[in-house]
Every structure is written in C-alpha cells, then in structure tokens.
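During the no-cost extension, the postdoctoral fellow (Dr. R.K.) reprocessed legacy sequence entries with the updated structure-token encoder. One reprocessed record is reproduced below for audit purposes.
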Amino acid sequence: MTEPKNISPREDVLPFGEISRETLDTSDEVTYADMALPGINEVVVRQISAANKEPEWMLEKRLASLRTYLSMPLPTWGADLSKIDLDSIYYYAKPAGAHDSKSWDDVPEKIKKTFDRLGIPEAERKVLAGVWAQYDSEVVYHNLRQELQDAGVIFEDMSVAIIQHEELVKKYFMKCVPATDHKFAALHGAVWSGGTFLYVPKGVKISDPLQAYFRMNVQSGGQFEHTLMIIDDDAEAHYIEGCSAPKYGTASLHAGCVEIFVGKNAYMRYSSVENWSVDTYNLNTKRSIVEAGGNIEWVWGNLGSGVTMLYPCSILKGDKSRARHLGIAFANTNQYTETGAKVIHIGADTTSEVVSKSLSKNWWVSVYRGLLDIRASAHRAVATIDCDGLLLDALSVNTTIPDIRVASSDATVAHEATVGKINEDMLFYLESHGIPTDAAKTMVVNGFLSPLVKELPLEYASEMNVLISMEMEGSIG
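Re-encoded structure tokens follow.
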C-alpha cells in the first residue's frame, strides 16, 4: 500500500506560523448576491434547489428530509442544544461574484484575500494533487491535476456533480447517512449546499493529498456542505480539510455530512482540522462503509467551536476490512467538546483501532463518547480503544462514555481510558531549566498529543501545533 505523502512546509512563510485567533475570528465585508431569509421552511428549501439548478429527484429528497426534520425532536443526550435558535440561522448565502472557478485569479478579491492569509492555495503549488475552497454556501475554487483527470478521477463541486454525474451521485447520495438518522442529518438533507464529490476509479492510486478548506463568514450563518467520496476497488486516496469561522457573538451552525464508500482492497485516509469560532455549534456527521479488504483511516483535530458533537463512524461490512480512528479534542473557555468514534464490525476478521486524546482547560468539558458494535457475523474481530484525557486545571471535566456491544464469541476487545493532570515533576524539571510555566505546560501538552499530531501532513501538523499553543496561552492554574 502506498502511504500518502506529507505536505512539505512552505519555504518562504509558513502561514500557520502567522495564525492568530484574531485572524480566524475576524469576518470579511462581503456582499451577498443570493441569500435566503433566516429560518427553515419549504420556501427556503426550494430556493436552494433552484439556485443549484438541481434535478427534480433531489428537490423531492430535500422536501422529504424537511418533513423528517420537522417531525424529530432535538437530541436529548450529550450537549445542551436547547439554546440554539434554528429559526434565526441563515441556511443559504451566496457571495456576489462567486462561482466555481478553475483559476485562482477569477475568485472575488475579498474572498481570495481570506484564503490567501489562511495559506490557500499556496500548498497546491507545492505538492497537493487537488485543492478546494468553499465560502459560506458556495464553492469558489477547485482544481485537480491533469494527470488525475486523465486517469478518470472526479474531484468536483457537489452542486456540479449532481448535474454532470447525476446517476453516480444518485446511487450513493445519503445512502450511508440517511436523513432519518437524527434531526441534524435530516436538516442537512433539506438544506445542503456545496461540498466535495470525489470518485477514484478502480486501481487508481493518488499518492499526494487532495485538500479542501471551508470558511463560514455570514453572521448567524449555517454551512451544510455535503462530502461524497467513492474509492473504487484497489484504489487509494488521501483527503484533508480545514474549517474556520469568525466570531460575532451570535450562534452559527455547521451541520455538514461526509459519506465515504471504500471498495474492495481500497484505502482511504480522511484528515481534518476543525477550528470554528466559539459561536459555532459543530454538529457534523461522518460515516464510511468499507468493503472486503478495504481500509479507512480518520485523523482529526477539533478546537474552537462552542459546542461540538462529532463521532466519525466506520461500518466494516466486508471480511478483513479495517478502520483506524485517531482524534484530538481541546475544550477551552465556553466550550463543550464531545467527540469520539463509532465502529460497527459486520465482516469476519475485521480489525479496528481507536486512539483519542482530549484536553480540558478553564473549567470546561471534554467528553469521549464511543460505540463499538461487533455483530455475530464478525468472527475473529479484533478491536482496541485507547482514550487519554488531560486536565489543565482543578475544575475542568474530562469524561469517557464507551458503549461496547459484542455478539461474536471469538472477538477480541481491549479498552483503556485514563484521565490525569500535567505531571508536576516534569513541570518542575522544565521550569528549573529556565522554561516559563506557560511554555513548559505547552511542551508537556505537545508531547501528550504528538503521537496523533504526527499522523497529520506536516503543514497541518504545524497548524495544529500553533493552534494548541494559542489555546494554551494563560494556562497557569
């Protein structure tokens, strides 16, 4: 198997070295050409569908999802979602002059400056196989290397793919995550806009990563990108994405959806660094179905958002299929971060590994919530779960909530969970060598997270290290 190449750091200026909370939290003065009224109803759903010139079957799916959404209650477990006013959210906002451009020069200047300061698409000119940028509800730029196009790879805006590759989209769309899954999956099915469609043909191996960056700018806005990836038999790909949003003091909502279909003996790695503002409710749904001999890897970091509920799921359908989940979560001031992994073993001789690292600071809450479901058909399944939490003060909360169900008598399951504080002896050692307390704590935290950070491509690992350092500022306590 060909391992995806790391993205090399920029030789001139590494953008993530310049990242500040002010940069991420500052909004842009952008004019919107098409914007739905706040709230969710049939008029808004029809407006979104018409704006994307969708076929009739997609409009019917949207309206059915809307009916499901209206009939379902808010989730009552996990984070408190009662304070979000879903009727005040803007569910569709298209920036003036924005369209899916193949040339960076054609992107509206204000939007281009936003992505430029975040390092997009500089990395594309280095080693990326393809790059993607979405601003609010609109994909504003994407590109794919010509040799991959010639090999039959499709890397397209979902709103375009549904027109140009209608039958392929129709075959897979929301078959992995149905609208009936939960209230926010139904909401997504009704109002989704933009997102990534990736198809990698049988036997095609993409050695360099594909990248996407999602920016939400409108106040009280929502972003509902739909990511649909089909990795055919014996194919390989690696996709990485980043996300951010400004801070307004009013709630915003991210309820995207990721569906990944991994074929026989195929390999897919999905990496993400989500760093929404503290205003954001991040209620994303991610799921994969893996056929015989296939392999899915999820690598993620979650920071920033006020409320996060995110549990990437792998369904190991085929014999000898594999899943690996590696996650980092950081709960700071005014944050409730609930992340985890779900793995469902169906095929025989399937294996899974879950490694989670979480941190809590300034009296806030980080929760690991996971599901391991080994069905009776999953003979000789092997699953390991390792959850480590680090408390950065005396009053923060770090909790592990595992749900383990084993119906196969010959399965092997290992689960380990630990929660602790920063080692005072280590801090004393570092401080005795002249390292300030804040810097010493950051060094210890980076050491705690390093086994997972090193799994990210180098440029994204650099971003994660900078973001962790920002979160650690003023952490004495």
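The chain has eleven helices and 26 strands. The first strand starts at residue 32 and ends at 35. The remaining legacy entries will be reprocessed before the final report is submitted.
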